[in-house]
Design a protein that fits this description.
This protein has 160 residues and is mainly β. The protein has one domain. 11% of the residues lie in helices and 28% in strands. It is built from two helices and ten strands. The strands form two sheets. It has an eight-stranded antiparallel β-sheet. Strands 1-2 form a two-stranded antiparallel ribbon. Strand 5 and strand 6 form a beta hairpin. It is globular. The N and C termini lie far apart (56 Å). The N terminus is likely disordered. Pfam families: Bflower. InterPro entries: Bflower. This is 4-fold beta flower domain-containing protein.
Length: 160
């Protein structure tokens, strides 16, 4: 019975025939509460000073704690979950841009914008599943020219 349990644990932990752990294994604290998940779709969002301001998991944007979904991305448009689906700006080439094209925030690997500072690292939180709402029909608009400068709009104002 112990061998069977050990085989089950090893299979569940490492996957059948794999030599490395399954990619979505959470990190737990001392009271066995999940703290983080390692996932290629999860990226920290940093402001112009390199401070973590939010998280992006796939096309859902979460607050800095990872608990509350605050916006989502649809065809490079950043749309608020509150405010009746308000258009906030764009997400393109790793930069979040305000309505006039200036960079507000960025993720690692961002290109085509201002110089990004060295980010201050944090542990990735566990994200609760979120159902993205149906995107409201937006009138076609011309995207602003992307600048190489930082916006005067900070992240808190951007997602309001």
């Amino acid at each position: 019975m112990r061998k069977l349990f050990l085989i089950f644990v090893l299979t569940a932990t490492y996957g059948i025939g794999n030599a490395k752990p399954i990619h979505h294994s959470p990190v737990f604290n001392e009271v066995n509460v999940p703290l983080a998940i390692n996932d290629d779709n999860v990226n920290a969002i940093y402001n112009n000073a390199g401070v973590l301001v939010a998280w992006i998991n796939g096309d859902i944007i979460y607050d800095s704690t990872g608990r509350d979904a605050i916006a989502f991305i649809d065809n490079q448009k950043v749309i608020s979950f509150s405010n009746d689906g308000k258009y906030l700006g764009r997400f393109h080439n790793g930069f979040f841009r305000d309505k006039v094209g200036n960079a507000v925030a960025w993720i690692k690997g961002a290109t085509g914008g201002p110089i990004t500072p060295i980010p201050l690292e944090r542990i990735t939180p566990v994200f609760m599943p979120v159902v993205k709402p149906i995107t409201p029909v937006l009138l076609p608009m011309v995207d602003p020219i992307e600048s190489l400068g930082w916006s005067v709009v900070n992240w808190g104002e951007f997602v309001k």
